[in-house]
Amino acid sequence: MNNLVFEATKVTPAVHFDAANGVLEIAGDSYPEHSLQFYQPVFKWLDDFIQRTTQPITFHFKLSYFNTSSSKCILNILEKLEEANRNGRQVSLHWHYREDDEDIRESGEEFAEDLSLTFQFVKH
Amino acid sequence: MAEDLFRLYQDMSQRKIWLAFKGAISQDVLVELGTLLKNKSVFDRKVKRVFAVFIEMTQNILHYSAETEAIPFGGNGAAHPVGVGVVVVSESADDYSVSAGNVVTADQMVYLREQCERIHGLDADQLKQYYDERLKAGQSLAGSKGAGLGLIDIARKADFPLDYEIRPIVDGRAFFVLTARIAKTLPS
């Protein structure tokens, strides 16, 4: 499988999905005009990866800001990971936040509340 | 005109207006104006909330304003309708304020009044619950661009209940104004 790599822009996060080692990372700001348009290929890649491979997934969210339409897309990604995990896939999830940005930590905690995945919070 | 502009300048200075914009709010415009807000401080949780509220409000105008203007899109020349509105970010002794206004249709007016009234009556926990509920309303991922969720998010980031006004104009349309205030120092 190919890797999925998007460089960050002012309004879209960097995406580095490494198919070989299962380390998937989304980092930066997310507030594009059309969130779904940006995240559609991310969803697609993740679905394929979950279906076609079996290795453990290590997912890093390193978001500094996301708007509400992006948060729907992030939830969608988390739900895909949760489902894979329920089906026996090993998933380790890391939610990164700046030490002085409690809001980002809290939004991670809110996602975590309703999911069976374990979030590891990483302070920077 | 020169005199008017001087008064506008004085008024804006006195009211500590960080930025004011009226016109077609394209993604490019809101990103640039948002960057001004972001650069206000190295990192301040409250100013970041001002930025977040600004982005939600201006993207609502971009997507939903009933008044639109066609702007050329990228290099391909295809017209791209963009919402028109007005947005003001200002500062007082104790708080920051973000206000946005735009024309809405009769249907939007009904929806917004209902949403604003509902949100107005909710405390922080209830807002969180309502946000969760709307976030998970699954089918809306494809259809809605997230408005509604945006309003709740704005209410959650504000430190005071949202001020809103829906003023009928012509042809059944109305002018919708939303103001969110964020305290400079209060913990929240």
Helix/strand-derived category of chain B reads alpha+beta
The ordered string of helix (H) and strand (E) elements of chain B is HEHHEEEHHHEE
Most extensive interface: A-B, 24 and 25 residues
Instruction: Name the helicity range of chain A.
Output: 25-40%
List the domain count of chain A as a whole number. Answer: 1
Shape of chain A: globular
What is the gyration radius of chain B calculated from CA atoms? 17 Å
Pattern of helices and strands of chain A: EEEHEHEHE
| Fraction of residues in H or I helices of chain B | 40-55%
User: In this structure, how is the largest beta sheet of chain A organized?
Assistant: 6 strands, mixed
DSSP strand count of chain A: 6
Describe it for me?
The complex is a heterodimer of chains A (124) and B (188). By secondary structure, chain A is of the alpha/beta class. Helix content of chain A is 40%, strand content 31%. Chain A has helices spanning 35-52, 68-86, 102-113, and strands spanning 4-6, 14-18, 23-30, 57-66, 91-97, 119-123. In chain A, β4, α2 (68-86) and β5 form a beta-alpha-beta unit. Chain A is globular. Chain A starts with a strand and ends with a strand. The mean pLDDT of chain A is 96. Chain B is α+β, with helices and mostly antiparallel strands and 188 residues long. Chain B has one domain (2-183). Chain B is built from six helices and six strands; from the N terminus they run αβααβββαααββ. In chain B, strands 1, 2, 3, 4, 5 and 6 form a six-stranded antiparallel beta sheet that branches. In chain B, α2 (27-38) packs antiparallel against α3 and α5 (124-136) packs antiparallel against α6. Chain A binds chain B through residues 10-11, 31-36, 65, 67-69, 71-73, 75-76, 98, 100-103, 110, 114, and chain B through 27, 31, 35, 43, 45, 48-49, 51-52, 55-56, 59, 62, 128, 132, 135-136, 140-142, 145-146, 149-150, 153.
